[in-house]
Amino acid sequence: MSGKPADTLLKAKDYKSEVKPVWCPGCGHFAVLSATTKALAHLGLPQKDVAMISGIGCSSRLPAYVSVYGFHGVHGRALAVASGLKAARPELTVLVAGGDGDGFSIGGNHFLHACRRNMDMTYIVMDNEVYGMTKGQASPTTSPDWAESKLTPHGPGVPSFNPAAIALASGATFIARGFTGKPNDLAKLLVDAIQHPGFSFIQALSPCTTFRPDQNDWKKIVRPFEQEATDDPVEAAKRIHADDGMSTGLLYQTKVPVWQPERSVRAQIDQLELGFQV
Amino acid sequence: MSDELDPGQSSHTLSVAITGSGGSGAVTAGEMLLIAVANAGFYGLMGRSAGPQIRGGESAVMLRAGVAPVECLDDRFDILIALDWLNVSRFAEEIPLTRDSLIICDPEAGEIPPDIARHGARVVELPLEALAKGIEGGRTNMIALGVLAELLGIPEEAMLTVVDAKLARKGASAVVPSQRCISCGYNEPKPQQLRQRLPRIKDRPARWNISGNEASGVGAIRGGVRFVAAYPITPATEMLEWLAPNLERVGGVLLQAEDELASVNMIIGGSFGGVPSMTATSGPGLSLMMEGLGLAVASETPVVVANVMRGGPSTGIPTKSEQSDLNIALHGFHGDAPHLVLAALNIRDCAFTTEWAVHLAEALQTVAIVLSDQFLGQARSVTDPPPTAPAGPGRRLAQPAAENYQRYTLADPGGISPMAIPGTEGCLYTADGLEHNERGTPSSMPQDHQLQLEKRRQKLTAIDGGEHWAEVHGSGDLCILTWGSSSGAAFEAAGRLLTMGRPVRVVAIRLLSPLPEQRMLDAIDGAVRTLVVEQNHAGQLFHYLHSLNLLHGEVRKLAKPGPLPIRPGEIVNAILEWI
Q1: Chain A interface, best mutation among B253, B254, B265, B388, by max A CB count within 10 A
Q2: E strands in B466-548
């Protein structure tokens, strides 16, 4: 973690709203809430200058629980709302939160283009490999043989989606994986992600205690990446494909110009209208 | 058109069609002719017909010039000049001719196709292509333009000046051959009796030469829009192409989105950030946006959608006009979702109506869908400068450190609650598409749902569109009700009927939802026979007005799908057949 909070700055609890989460007891998302408030407090960001945007799903309830400006939109479109907000209000710190279904299935196209567009925002996906709010269906990151859903009684039967690989291929400039069993490490990743100039993506492994009790075992297999982050996309791709998806930490970070249109008034409307006169 | 009835004539207008295959330069020639006509002091209208192909399809321009404002195409064309006959049958129906019409064509281009020849129009053969080949770098379209300029009585020098101005940036290598072609076509001997000279006009007031799509862009910027996100789609793209550089000049941003799902949600984000925001699209895009627009209604985030209609459903007829998106604009939302629907009545009105829509959406913190169509969007008009819309009160913003701020408070009469923009001290909240309580916290309580539904309905019913809700002209017990681009033909039909001693009132509706019902009832009071005119198959306005129980007396509909425009003569005939 870089920088030190001054005494005058807000504490983590100041970034927590009074709204009670709808999450199940033991849900991994509580740790994302905690990591978010810690990261914001660490960075000392004024609440009024932070906006958290989300779509639909258990994890997308996060904005209401954080004491900043929030927008809880429709399923899959959080990155689009965030991109519009950032284009219109570049001085705001824009955070986007959601789940694996919201971000990689219904919102998949926006994920590709947000990575490619490289606007300065942070996207944290709480990945529990299941649709929780609709009571336990397979998501794009569910393994092909998971047969616990009535909707896919034989398992989804198709290979799962590799978020880090897709992010890399789409041009994301900051790719990390965290685990909600390690909330302090997750908070550190969030601090780095927010400070990264450009589009930063964190896949937070966040167990679903209700529909994926098997994920209680994640704490036994999650471990840090063996190497420091790379800025070489070829090396990053090798590491992503050699990994089982359970290594955590910053995987890839590179500096690419941020896309942020300049806004300056150079003409008035009547000057534009001159072009139509005959 | 029935032969027994006289559809009437419009005095002092002249209609010219230039046809060719895609890439033949028909549009370029038409644009130059329109400028020359404008310079000579006339009002003008130039519609375009194009196939879906980029090159090698069909292309036609339909130009009408007059001494009074021209808002629709005429029933027939005075002159058709063919650059070639390739694929002309695809739009032959769009260029009605009579025995009095004049066809100018090149005998080397082959026989006149039966679809064109069947009208029995007079024919003049000129060696257009051979003349062009005689000039280095010469093109047939410029020969044709010279021919037309001479027939219409536009001075040769004036025509050459237009070419110079239009092609100057391409350099002398473009200007010189074109000018030589113009002079060649101009001086090519033609039978004297064919001339259809426009009258001379002494004073030429300042006018605009603008397309509907450009006018919509002007209206958006006038209204304060400074963020646009959109996905390219025919026939709305030109609005975006005009907005991209011009928004930038006034300190705004245009973002090309990955799809329409993104564009609508991006403008919701921009507007949540406090910047008046808009997108432009056409039917398929509007269909994709409906969920996002419901979010804007529920979260009370003002956004404007400029929807340039084309033939539907599905991909339909992308390059041709139709007024068939009224139903989706009015009723396309799930849930009870009060919002605004407006329609521009002509090219010039695209500016006024779009600007007004921005003001209304901002003031009411809701969605405004503005309907225009391919004809209005892609046609050019030589018109009086468009008026500005009445300024609204603007968006009601929360004051910093408002005590116990509640975004969706019910405390304010009228239902319009102050909106806090990120960056505002002490007013943190989360906007939500989930039903919510006054604070914005998600709620499925019956009472919260009832109260928030009432809040969102109330703020719309409180508005009064004033006199701008419609253009109401004329009087009498005959009434024409219409909307959008059919309005031009309706007003012209009423003018012709008046000269026949049949006064007709026309009500062309601009604010379709919420429709000011008392104003509507006042406008149609005393009407014994009402004809509802619109360019779609189902009669969407007809059924909408019935659903509101606003139609009384005898009512008929003249509902005709695109791509053929509704022409004034058809409306005249429909009235004459009825009475």
Answers
A1: B265
A2: 470-473, 478-483, 505-509, 511-513, 529-534
From chain B residues 436-495, the ones with a CB under 8 A of any chain A CB are: 440-442
Q: Looking at this protein, which amino acid is placed at residue B371?
A: L
Distance, in Å, from the CA atom of B164 to the CA atom of A230, rounded to the nearest integer, reads: 58
CA pseudo-torsion sign B318, B321, B327, B330? positive
Three-class secondary structure of residue B380 per DSSP? strand
Looking at CA atoms only, how far is residue B420 from chain A in angstroms?
A: 9
What are the sequence ranges of the domains in chain A? Answer: 16-276
Question: What's the full length of chain B, in residues?
Answer: 579
| Distance (Å) from the alpha carbon of B82 to chain A's nearest alpha carbon | 28
The single residue listed with the structure tokens 């807000």 is A10
Does position B225 have pLDDT exceeding 90, yes or no? yes
Q: Distance (Å, rounded) from C-alpha B310 to C-alpha B320?
A: 6
Q: Round to whole Å and give the CA distance between B465 and B517.
A: 11
Q: Which of A198, A171, A202, A19 is nearest to A94 (CA)?
A: A198
A176 residue type, one letter: A
Q: CA-CA distances (angstroms) from residue A180 to A219, A220, B73? A: 9, 13, 67
Q: Are A125 and A32 in contact (CB under 8 A)?
A: no
Q: Which two tokens stand for residue B360?
A: 């209304």
- CB–CB contact B257 A48 (8 Å): no
Residue B500: per-residue pLDDT: 95
Residue A7 pLDDT grade (very low, low, confident, very high; cuts 50, 70, 90): low
Structural domains of chain B, ranges and CATH numbers in brackets: 13-194 (3.40.920.10), 211-383 (3.40.50.970), 396-463 (no CATH), 466-578 (3.40.50.920)
pLDDT, average across residues B360-376: 98
d(CA B152, CA B29): 14
Q: Are strands B13-21 and B43-50 parallel, antiparallel or unpaired?
A: unpaired
The H-assigned helical ranges of B226-325 are 237-249, 260-272, 283-299
Chain B hits for A110, Cβ within 8 Å: 258, 261-262
Chain A contact set for B425 (CB, 8 A): 48
Chain B closest CA to A41's CA: distance in Å? 16
Residues of B (9-48) whose Cβ lies below 8 Å from A: 35, 38-39
Assess: ipTM above 0.85: yes
The CATH classification number of A16-276 equals 3.40.50.970
Burial class (CB in 10 A: 0-12, 13-18, 19+), B518: exposed
- Give residue B7's pLDDT: 63
